[in-house]
Design a protein that fits this description.
By secondary structure, this protein is of the alpha+beta class. The protein has 2 domains: 1-40; 51-99, no CATH class. It has 4 helices and 5 strands, in the order ααβββββαα. The strands form 2 sheets. The protein has a 3-stranded antiparallel β-sheet with strand order 1-2-5. Helix 1 crosses helix 2. The chain is extended, with a radius of gyration of 19 Å. It starts with a helix and ends with a helix.
């Protein structure tokens, strides 16, 4: 499902204009990104949490030049679904049919 499809689905379910839904969804993404950029985690009870994960410094290889590259330690965004969210997916009949 794409972002446009999500916006259409929300607009149909709520009766809110698509432009308003789009602005809300875009604002949500901006808030999550800016919060993570400042080191603040975002938690949604029953859905999941957006957190930062620290990656250690490592040595990689540039195979075209056959040289070593040092990748410094850094943080990456991570999403961890809530237990209730995971349980709902596990019990879903539609997902079971995909197996």
């Amino acid at each position: 499902m794409t972002k446009a499809e999500v916006i259409n689905e929300i607009a149909e379910r709520t009766g809110i204009e698509k432009n308003d839904v789009q602005q809300t969804v875009e604002s949500f993404f901006k808030v999550v990104k800016s919060s993570l950029a400042t080191g603040e985690n975002v938690y949604f009870r029953g859905f999941g949490s957006f957190t930062l994960k620290k990656r250690a410094r490592k040595i990689a290889r540039n195979i075209s030049k056959n040289t070593q590259i040092t990748i410094p330690e850094h943080f990456i965004p991570k999403f961890k679904p809530a237990k209730t969210f995971v349980d709902k997916i596990k019990k879903s009949e539609e997902v079971k049919r995909l197996l």
